[in-house]
Amino acid sequence: MAAAEAADTQLMLGVGLIDTNGEVLWVWCYPSTTATLRNLLLKKCCLTDENKLLHPFVFGQYRRTWFYITTVEVPDSSVLIKVTHFSIVLTAKDFNPEKYAAFTRILILHSFYT
């Protein structure tokens, strides 16, 4: 019974990483995602935009799955010289932009200082 209740309360579905290294790449995700959702998220992350307008936080819904994307510029002191920007992508069952924006900012800060 406890396992079924825990599964019902699990709201976050996955996390992913997109970066630019000469081209926009879907670098990592856990757990795996469908190719259709991955392609949609690549388009929504604003790293593929021709006008290069950076949208720091984007969210939306696709087939009853909410997505939250935070995109940042990589500091010049980065170990990966060619990576200029990256996006953290979260997918979830619930609509809560404030919570997921804060969580993605925490993940980004952790990636810069570890």
From TrEMBL:
UniProt KW Zinc keyword: no
Main location class: other
Keywords of the record: Endosome, Guanine-nucleotide releasing factor
Gene Ontology BP term (one): protein transport
Cell compartment(s), UniProt: Late endosome
Family indicated by similarity: Belongs to the DENND10 family.
UniProt protein name: UDENN domain-containing protein
Organism: Suricata suricatta
